[in-house]
């Protein structure tokens, strides 16, 4: 596994935001900007994957006929 694959969603987002900030300020050299962009693309893909995984685990509460919670079921349409 790569370093990015081991990152939590939150850590990857923080680094992605910092990377975007550095690119927006335009203070990096061309070569540094290319490396930042490449890492940012990897971080973005990682965050997208983590979100998809979370969406697949989302469950909705099922209700009994009397309206009381009875359990959970996988969310539909994800």
Automatic annotation (TrEMBL):
Gene3D superfamilies, per database record: Exonuclease VII, small subunit (1.10.287.1040)
Entries under InterPro entries matching the protein: Exonuc_VII_S, Exonuc_VII_ssu_sf
Protein's cellular compartments: Cytoplasm
Superkingdom, taxonomy of origin: Bacteria
EC number: 3.1.11.6
A family per Pfam: Exonuc_VII_S
Annotated transmembrane regions: none
Catalytic activity: Exonucleolytic cleavage in either 5'- to 3'- or 3'- to 5'-direction to yield nucleoside 5'-phosphates
GO CC, alphabetical: cytosol; exodeoxyribonuclease VII complex
GO MF, any single term: exodeoxyribonuclease VII activity
Enzyme class: hydrolase
UniProt keywords, alphabetically: Cytoplasm, Exonuclease, Hydrolase, Nuclease
One BP annotation, GO: DNA catabolic process
Hydrolase recorded as keyword: yes
Matches recorded under HAMAP family: Exonuc_7_S (MF_00337)
Job description of the protein: Bidirectionally degrades single-stranded DNA into large acid-insoluble oligonucleotides, which are then degraded further into small acid-soluble oligonucleotides.
Oligomer and partners: Heterooligomer composed of large and small subunits.
Family membership: Belongs to the XseB family.
Protein name: Exodeoxyribonuclease 7 small subunit
Organism: Paracoccus versutus (Thiobacillus versutus)
């Amino acid at each position: 596994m790569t370093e990015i694959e081991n990152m939590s969603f939150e850590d990857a987002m923080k680094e992605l935001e910092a990377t975007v900030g550095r690119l927006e300020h335009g203070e990096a050299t061309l070569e540094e900007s290319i490396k930042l962009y490449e890492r940012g693309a990897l971080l973005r893909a990682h965050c997208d994957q983590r979100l998809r995984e979370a969406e697949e685990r989302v469950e909705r509460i099922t209700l009994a006929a009397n309206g009381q919670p009875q359990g959970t079921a996988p969310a539909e349409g994800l």
